[in-house]
Design goal:
The chain is an alpha/beta fold. The chain has five helices and seven strands, in the order βαβαββααβαββ. The chain has helices at 13-24, 42-58, 89-97, 107-124, 144-163, and strands at 2-7, 31-35, 62-66, 83-87, 127-133, 166-171, 174-179. Strands 3-2-4-5-1-6-7 form a seven-stranded mixed sheet, sandwiched between helices. Strand 2 (31-35), helix 2 and strand 3 form a beta-alpha-beta unit.
Length: 184
């Protein structure tokens, strides 16, 4: 099963998604946090540490996997009762698209790989919750690489909202249901 959660920066999407994962968890399953961020600088390292501490304070039972690309390989670590929290699609897409500027990738290939990876993850566990940033309210940049990124992200959002059982947009810490029902 799939839940898709998007929203602006600091809209509460990760907190809401973590709580949803904790509610979905069964006694025989694990909470798996699949973190896609890379420790690229001191600020990012501090943000990653903060997220880890927050999860430990809320629920000591989170298992974190840090994987920035090729997320489908994580399916081997999942069991059918686990809940997978994927944070986040925007960072993962950036990692995949811009990992090597010397070998440009076609947007359709990246999109296909990400969709296939999510299908593999979804097939290996009970529920996948995908977090993503809503970047679509700003002017479209002139840089061709950023434009391609925004276009692919928009296409992925449409795909995952269509295929998700539940789709939520976070607005100022409040879930706005786009599809399905919000977990209570």
């Amino acid at each position: 099963m799939l839940t898709f959660v998007c929203g602006g920066v600091r809209s509460g999407k990760s907190s809401w998604g973590e709580k949803a994962a904790e509610k979905l968890r069964r006694a025989d399953g694990k909470l798996i946090y699949l973190a896609t961020a890379r420790q690229s600088d001191a600020e990012m390292k501090n943000r990653i540490l903060l997220h880890q501490r927050e999860r430990q304070a809320k629920c000591a039972e989170w298992t974190t996997i840090e994987q920035s690309i090729k997320l489908e390989t994580c399916a081997d670590f999942l069991r059918n009762h686990d809940i997978l929290f994927l944070d986040c699609l925007t960072t993962w897409l950036s990692n995949e698209m811009f990992k090597d500027f010397n070998q440009p990738v076609q947007p359709k290939d990246i999109k296909r790989r990400i969709i296939a990876a999510v299908a593999a993850l979804e097939g290996a566990c009970n529920h996948v919750i995908i977090i993503s940033n809503d970047l679509f309210h700003e002017p479209i940049p002139r840089d061709k690489h950023v434009y391609r990124y925004i276009r692919v992200l928009g296409e992925l959002h449409q795909y995952f909202v269509h295929h998700a059982k539940t789709a939520v947009k976070m607005e100022a810490g409040r879930p706005v249901v786009m599809k399905g029902e919000v977990l209570r």
